[in-house]
Amino acid sequence: MESTISIFCKNNQTQQTFPAGVSLMEVYEQMQPSLLYPVACATVNNKIESLTYACYKSKDVKFLDVSDPAGMRIYVKSLCFVMAKAVHDLFPDAKLYIEHGLSRGYYCEVETGQTLTYSIVKQIKRHMQALIAADLPFEEHERPTPEVIALFEHFGMSDKAHLLQTTGEAYSTYYTLDGYPDSFYGGLLPSTSHIYLFDIERYRKGILLRIPNRNIPFRLEPYVNQEKMSAVFREWRQFQKALNLSNVGELNQCIIKDDIATIVQVAEIVQEKQIGKIADEICQRYESGVRVVLIAGPSSSGKTTFCKRLHLELLANTLRPHSISLDDYYLNRVDTPLDAEGNYDYESLYAIDLQKFNEDLKQILAGAKVDLPSYDFPSGTRVYRGDSIQLGDRSILIMEGIHGLNPSLVPNIPPSSIYKIYVSALTSISLDDHNWIPTTDNRLLRRIVRDHRFRGCVAKETISRWASVRKGEDKWIFPYQENADAMFNSAMLYELAALRDIAEPVLKEVSPMDDEYSEAHRLLQFLQFFKSIDQSVLPSTSLLREFVGGSSFKY
Length: 555
What we know:
Elements: E1 4-9, E2 14-19, E3 22-23, H1 24-31, E4 39-44, E5 47-49, E6 54-55, E7 59-65, H2 69-90, E8 95-102, E9 105-111, H3 118-133, E10 139-144, H4 145-154, H5 158-167, E11 171-177, E12 180-182, E13 199-203, E14 206-210, H6 227-243, H7 248-256, H8 260-286, E15 292-296, H9 303-316, E16 320-325, H10 354-365, E17 370-376, E18 381-389, E19 395-400, E20 418-424, H11 439-454, H12 459-476, E21 486-489, H13 495-507, H14 517-527, H15 545-548
Parallel strand pairs: 1-7, 15-19, 15-20, 16-19, 20-21
Antiparallel strand pairs: 1-2, 3-6, 4-5, 4-7, 8-9, 9-14, 10-11, 11-12, 13-14, 17-18
Helix pairs in contact: 2-3, 4-5, 5-7, 8-9, 11-12, 11-13, 13-14
């Protein structure tokens, strides 16, 4: 074994020699790379590693602070561990559920056998602060999986035990904090003192865990009221509990028992009922003047298939829906606004020809026959292919696009004439009680699969553009989601199990030499938790068919 190794730091483009076995934290302290915010982790040969990672061979290293998505993930997971430890210390028999992102934080519930009061929340916060001040290490352990399962069962963590029982790995990694075990996938900070900012507040019947702002990490994320989204998550969690499908361990057990076909059928029925309910409400409002349905949502949320299924539901309710895609009103590429990096900003509202769109819309609603444009993406120009639209008796106009909920899109249409729908993959199933599944990971995997299958785009390209897509969503979509009259959750309980076999070979094409490898590797590790299911069990009308193929709808 080498006694010394060479570390090349990409941050400051310098190289130094270290003794073999040096930790990344020691490298950071000696090489002092310039970061704007506190360091959280590093890429080592393009793989994300925690700062306790020991280097035994020469490596290329890039340190990441908490403003980087990977750094923020590790920060938040470490904070969640501190919260879990605090709840355990104060209420040894309590159950903590860290459920999902909400209001720029994370919604959690604590079952203590008593009402969760403001006083209890303050107790938890004070104990978290004490644990942070004590600078306790997050200690990593790797043991035979049966041994780790027994440990989690001893601590009453059946959710974690079930997950490990169904993944089939010989060895498993877990962490301890002052003797308390837990599992947080993807690494943690070195110790509790690296957590410098957080807050917890009582929210509904649970707790809102507040975290540093992703753009200015020395401030907390501003609270955003998301009552409608909270209601959607609450409804789905109740449905999952009724099915005993709150986490991936329980999903895997259904797959092992060959009960997954029933779960798929039930999940599809629930979505169908949701769409039918929305259609019924639109029909009721049609009688009082609604003539336009606006549908918005972030990338890969399933807006297109939702529109097609809503179209059928409205037909069944004796309305005559006509559809327009906002994408067809893009400006010619040469006239498209540029983002801060000088690239065409297709996420911007002003990439749409608002003047032409509103002129056409006015004529359409007046009953005139209007020729519809089509945007030719290869040439980046607007073309006319002979398509037209004219509303008649009991007609209603459906318009789908990322800006559907933005009031500036249709400033001249009376709000009483519009029904607004927000569509997103609000992933409600969790890996286990302390590890939620980010909705963005769900959508990214959908997009990687769809881009590869239908757009000739490799995973490296999709991943490289994802940050720009997310930035556009933060600016142009998410601020308006609570404007919706209805929210539709397009996430399927089973879908990540269905995506696994398709996504894995696509992700494995990303080279370790690529900067995108760290994200591809993370997603591959994440997919390992799911037992795969064959897509043949998916109905031809399933929303997931938009991404994996085999749909009975035409796109």
